[in-house]
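anyone seen this seq b4? input:
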Amino acid sequence: MRKFKIFDSHTHAYPDEIAEKARINLGKFYEFDVPNSPMLADLLNSQRGGESSGFALFSVATTPEQVVKINNWLNGIKDENREFKIILFAAIHQDFEDKPGELDRVLKLGFRGVKIHPDIQRVDIDSPKLMDLYAAAEGRAIVYFHAGDERYDYSLPEKIVKIKEMFPKLEIIAAHLGGYQKWKTACEVYKKQDIYFDTSSTLWAIPPNEARDIIVNYNAERILFGTDFPIRKVREELEYLDELNLDDNLLEKILYKNAERLFDL
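predicted toks r here
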């Protein structure tokens, strides 16, 4: 697998002073231990250890007041690090007053889109509060959704498909192969939708044959490799992917080629 270039399309990091608190809170939310520190230095070490060439990075805003602070911090990371190709996704909150204005600002800074975690932010993907953001992003920016959780309805795959139908030119990435803990129904919901999916927080959670079936069912051009760091490191996630016994052509697309095209790497 090392013969292919690697791009990690799903990572999180936090400022050092809040990283440990964020790790603990994330573990409480998902009801499992988060094994890695989400400090930037640890993220960079994970990328180096897995021989990654770059990564997409985001953080989640749980209040409107956090939005600008988080996005400014993310922008500083891009400006200060030249070792990796870094693709930034802005934090946004459903109650932030000027979502289109903040989107304009971050796009001018070089961000590629926004990340929404409906379950943590407690907002439905199809909430009226987010429609102005989708309208502003359509044809201009990527919206990256956390997708699925058996405990909540905020991020149902059906709601992602609804938004794609409402905003057909909106580029969408649905994390966790389109539906964390909802994999058995997600494939049927998405069918051949013009949506991207990432592999993060999936390969360690379901049997390899099930993950393989899901991946093969999707459009091979629209699957991205992701670790969900600090949940998993690059090297660990590569080992899970290797267990699927995918052919080299598909592996190369997942590990790098699809991200290369989508993010203009």
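The CA atoms of residues 184 and 214 lie 8 Å apart. The chain is about 45% helix and 15% strand. kinda curious what u guys think
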